[in-house]
User: Which sequence fits this backbone?
């Protein structure tokens, strides 16, 4: 069993190298860019058929399982005035639309942006910070409880000055 876990740790990296969730792969004008990552998960329970917070309940005769925690595929395009992002999550539970938004910005500066569509809610620091950069890939349980779906449909105005990187401002009107 330890050999299997060791091999999984080597061949199935748990960290995805991504960027801020509400952004294309690059703001430099480019044609279609396709990026993605895969995050696997192994769970071992104390007994068969237990209830589980993460990943759903275990089946009646099982106390261990492998899962695809995140299987992200992101397609984006950026030009002089706008960016378009489309991202899906493919797991054993099916396909989920994660992002589908368009962003408008000034041609010489990306400090002020207008975003419309399905995107991450600008609430706190944890929600918009990509799982590829967090110390632990899962968000705090309080965020998972209060906002089981981090994304929402709406419009957002963002101000992220390039010279003062410690100042950020997002104002959004969303459905939920």
Assistant:
């Amino acid at each position: 069993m330890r050999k299997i876990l060791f091999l999984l740790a080597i061949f199935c990296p748990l960290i995805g190298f991504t960027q801020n969730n509400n952004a294309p792969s690059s703001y430099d004008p480019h044609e279609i860019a396709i990026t993605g990552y895969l995050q696997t998960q192994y769970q071992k329970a104390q007994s068969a058929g237990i209830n589980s917070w993460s990943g759903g309940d275990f089946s009646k005769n099982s106390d261990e399982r492998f899962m695809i925690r995140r299987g992200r595929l992101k397609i984006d395009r950026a030009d002089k005035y706008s960016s378009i992002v489309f991202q899906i999550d493919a797991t054993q539970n099916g396909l989920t639309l994660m992002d589908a938004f368009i962003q408008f910005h000034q041609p010489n500066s990306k400090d002020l942006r207008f975003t419309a569509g399905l995107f991450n809610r600008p609430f706190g620091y944890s929600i918009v910070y990509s799982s590829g950069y967090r110390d632990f890939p899962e968000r705090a349980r309080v965020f998972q409880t209060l906002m089981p779906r981090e994304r929402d449909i709406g419009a957002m105005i963002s101000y992220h000055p390039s010279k003062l990187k410690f100042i950020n401002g997002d104002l959004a009107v969303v459905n939920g």
Summary: The two ends are 45 Å apart (CA to CA). DSSP finds two helices and seven strands in the chain. Residues 11-19 have pLDDT under 50 and may be disordered.
